[in-house]
Each structure stands twice: as structure tokens, then as C-alpha cells.
Amino acid sequence: MPSFLxxxxxxxxxxxxxxxxxxxxxxEKVWFFSLLAIFLASAGFLYSDFYFNNTFTTPAKGGRIKQxxxxxxxxxxxxxxxxxxxxxxxxxxxxxxxxxYDQEGNAINDLIAGNPDFKDGGKTMxxxxxxxxxxxxxxxxxxxxxxxTINAVQNSRYSSDLRPNWQQVEVEKISDTVGRLKxxxxxxxxxxxxxxxxxxxxxxxxxxxxxxxxxxPNLNIFNPVGSGPxxxxxxxxxxxxxxxxxLARNNSYSGKEPYLDEVEFVFFKQKKEMMKALDSxxxxxxxxxxxxxxxxxxxxxxxxxxxxxxxxFAAFFNMREDLFAExxxxxxxxxxxxxxxxxxxxxxxxxxxxxxxxIPDFYGFSAPTSVYAFDLEKxxxxxxxxxxxxxxxxxxxxxxxxxxxxxxxxxxxxNKGTDVEKLQECLAKDSEVYPEGTITGEFGDKTKAAxxxxxxxxxxxxxxxxxxxxxxxxxxxxxxxxxxQLCYPSPTEETVFAFTLTTVNDxxxxxxxxxxxxxxxxxxxxxxxxxxxxxxxxxxxxxNRDFQVLLFGETLSSIPxxxxxxxxxxxxxxxxxxxxxxxxxxxxxxxxARKYADPKDPERQKTLEQxxxxxxxxxxxxxxxxxxxxxxxxxSIKGFGVKKMTESAKIFSDLPNxxxxxxxxxxx
Length: 668
What we know:
Blueprint: H1 14-23, H2 26-53, E1 55-60, E2 64-70, H3 85-94, E3 99-101, E4 107-109, E5 112-119, E6 124-129, H4 143-154, E7 169-173, E8 178-183, H5 190-196, H6 202-205, H7 217-222, E9 230-238, E10 241-249, E11 262-268, H8 271-280, E12 285-288, E13 302-307, E14 311-317, H9 322-325, H10 327-335, H11 339-346, E15 352-353, H12 360-363, H13 376-385, E16 389-391, E17 394-400, H14 418-428, H15 445-457, H16 459-462, H17 477-487, E18 492-496, E19 498-504, H18 507-521, E20 526-532, H19 537-543, E21 549-555, H20 563-566, H21 584-594, H22 602-618, E22 621-626, E23 629-634, E24 661-666
Parallel strand pairs: 2-11, 2-12, 19-20, 19-21
Antiparallel strand pairs: 1-24, 3-4, 5-6, 6-8, 7-8, 9-10, 10-11, 12-23, 13-23, 14-21, 14-22, 15-22, 16-17, 17-18
Helix pairs in contact: 10-13, 11-18, 21-22
């Protein structure tokens, strides 16, 4: 190639670039830098477009959130936590169970590996737990821990609230990782019970006497040993008030590894303090009591998550009371209850009205075949059928009481005793009949003569019915009746249709109680509202059944088992049949529904639907409404996916899916 055609190409040096810019005019420099800026911007845009089209956002590890609670933690211990939502929430994160819950509230595997093997028609369940699971102190978790926990729950000395669900279950260790549960009969709620049961470390608790369980603050608060996704890192306390508990990720957790490094539970003495902390960003999440606990401005930085729960509120009749043993009275109050007014005036339309204690919308049951409709006139007619009349706005009934004394036996000449004394006292009240008026207790001539005069004075009532024209001096049936009428009449007592409506000291429930009071007043019911602090509920309501009508909430499980609430054998503590409801057919259906090994068996659903019709017909309680659980999260929290839950603490079974940090990954 000729030398003049050879090109010696190389990138200009800094000095050459300097000379280059000296050669350009001002206008040329403007054009050059403008075009250069356009080129760089275009290159950046093309790269950015390429990057975002070929990558996707994924959750990244790291970060922390703060969760607010009103109140104080007491026991981060599965055997002691059931009475407190705070304790149950902490237990949910620090301990594992054989089962847990998914975002739809269904029981799914936690420590169990693979599918449990049901045998003997569902009366035996064999299962294996994951291998290599560690407690947070490094010790291995095995079947000894499972057996120890179930035995502790069954032991009355531990006083676990879970005990009623485990009394008919035998647990057996087959190997370190395989176990067996034996039941007296198939039980559709077994998986639910496994999800509610968190496992305790045997090596920590086996030497602690049940009576000393609550006396271990180090193990119950400061350093609990669990196997859950988080472990206690720090407890901040001031003046005997626990201000916060920080949980750190448990890197040896056997389940899905959480994204968040830490979760801090922050505790407040009053709700208004917690709401202020939410508004200021001091905490990022909290459960709310009602829709009134937030304002529209809050929603600019928060997500309000409305979660379905198997909970409902009802007015429960104490059927042990004579008044509410009468079905007409219960039906009248139901027909006088306008649920739409309750929803509108007390709950700001934030409630789902219900007619069944089985919450068909939550579980997918068919609606009841028939329900009582609001009908004020029919309600008034039922009250009248119970012999009440309206007086000064209130329903009043006149009742005859037994007199202190009445003549019940025949008296004749020669008798002696108290009855003769009473006879003489009665006759002496009429000087024309018995002018002597002496009280001797002996039925002699003067007494007989007085009886004859008495009979002839009231001849039309005493003698005529027996076709007699003259008195005979004998105190027989006709004479006794007239003597009783004049001297010992049955006293009457006016009873007002009045009773006490008891409820929890909660703003929404008090408003509902006020609406019910006003509605029932329209049929003459005089209602007094009584509030009970939530801390007293177990003693006042559950143990003592100290109420006439109770406005209260009940919660079913993810697998509906209404037996504890409606079976006749559950009408005393610790049973939850608050009304004292007793129906032989209902008992039979409640027992039958438990015997299906598969909780989704169509026949089980038919059994429960038949049960709901019987309960609605008997009307032991006025079913009012259900409400979604309100959970507020800062918009910085991602991955929250809970749709249904059985109780608020179960929100945290989903916490390993939450995140605040993200990263991008290249698409494959």
C-alpha cells in the first residue's frame, strides 16, 4: 500500500483538544456543547431504557420497621400469651408451630415437612418435622420438644387456654423427626389447633415447675428462646414501663427468611399517644380499633388495610334468666332491632350486617333459609302476648304473688290449731258475723255459728252453687275460697319490662348499645347500659356469666368450629356458650361437624348450614354485624398481603414477606 494512503489514527491529546476549542468560534462552541449534551442525554436514556426493560424490582434484605401497641407485654411464652394480643404478636414472631397461616387465613406447614399422613379414618395423624431446625440458642429442635409442649398444654397445672382443644389427643414420638397424634374420633379442627400451638424448648422449661412459669422474666420477656423468624435483641424499660422490644432476624429460622433486619414493638400508655406517633412517623404500623382512629390526611402516607376476620358482634341473651327463657321476649327484641340504623348511626356504615353466627360470607356457606325481619308492630304484639301493657311508655306486667297464708284444708266443729285461729281472725273482721271476736284456736259453737252467718251472708257465692239455702257451719271448698278472697287475697306486683345491657368499654360498642337501648324502648323495654373494662371480661362474663343481655364479640377459627359457643355442655366456664343455649338437635350437629377428618368435606358444610338454621330459629342471640380488622401501614412498607386472619396477632405470620428496601435484578 502506498505510504500516502496509510492513516495514523489516534485519540487527540488534552493539549490538542485545547487547541481544538481555540479554533472554534463562540457560536461553534455553543453548537458543539449542545450537540454533545444531546448525545450524552440520548446515550443515558438508551442505557436507562435498556436497563429498566431488562431488569425487574425485587425485595432486598435490610431495613427495620416500628410497630405500635397500646399496653404492655407480659409473657413472650406460648403457654401464657393467649390473653394478650401484644403477647400473642410477639410469640408469633419468636416461636414456630407445626402449622402457621397463609395470607388467606388457611393453615399451612411451618415446622412440618411434607403432607401429614392421616390414618384410621382420620383418628391418627403421622407427621415429620424439618431436619436441622435449631432453637435460637443453637440447640436442635426435635420431637421431644413437640411432645413436651403438647403435654404441658394438656396439664391443668399450666392453666393454658389451649387445653380444652387438646384434652382428647395423645402424642407419641416415633423418632427425633417423626411423631404421631391419636384422637378419640376424627376432628376437623386439628390443623387449626396445630397452627395455634407454638412449640416450647424442652431443654429450657422441663425443670421449671408449672407454678413458677410466670416467675421467669428473663425467659418470658428479656431472653425468650424460640425458633421463629425473629429473636429478642433488646428490651428498653423506664420506671417499670417497657417502652419497646426490638426483634432481630433469626438467621437460623427454618422457614422463609425475612427481609427486614429488625422489627421494633413500641408500647404506649394511651391510644392518643400511639396515634400521634403514627402521624409523626415515629412508628410505621399499628392496628386500629375503629375507622374513627384515622383521618383522611393520614391516608396520604399510610395504607389502610381492611382484613376479613371470622368475628361477629351480637346481643347475647342470658337464657338462665326467667325473662329471657321466654322465646317471645327474645323474638320481640330481635324484631325491634333495626340493624341498618345501627350500621348507619353507630358504625358510620363501616360494618357488614349478619344474621348467622357462622358468618356465611367469610366461610362460603349458603345464606340462612329464613331470618327474622325488622317489624316493630309484630314485636309489640309479642310483648302483649306476654301480658305486658304499655303504661307511661314502659311495658308493665301485673303478677299475682302467693299470699303468706291461705285456707287449704277443710275445717269443721272440733278442729284445733293455727288454721282455726286464722279462721277466727278472718271472721272477727266482720262484727255482724262474729261479734264475740275471740281467738281461741278451737272450733266451737261460737265459731260454727259465725261460719253459718258468713255462709248465709255470701249465699250467692257459697251456698247457691251447691243448691243450698242454709249454712252448715263447715269450712269446705266454697267457703274457703270466699274466706281467702276477703282475708288473704293474692297480692299483686307490677313488673316493668326492664333489664341491663352489658358491653365492653369501647367507643363503638357503647354507641351500638345506645342505639339498641333507643330501639327497644319503642316496644316498652327499659334498658340500662353497663360497661365493663376489657381486663374484667374473663371474670365477669366468662367465669361468672354476670349479665342479662351482653353486647359482645366472638371469633371463630379459620376452620369453623362453633361447638365451644353453642353446645349445651359449654355453658359453664371455661366453655364459651354464654347464653346457656340448650338444644339437643343442635348439640348433635355440633358434635357431628367435628367428626369429619376433612374440614372441607361438603357433608360437613351441609351439617353446619343445618345448624345455623336451628340456632337462628331459637334466637339465643341477636346477630348484629361483623367488621374488618383495620391495620395501618406506612407506604414505605411493601409486601403486605394479608387478606383474611383469625386474630390480629396472626398478621405477623406474614411479616417475613414485608420489606422496605428493593433492588433490581437482570431478567434471565
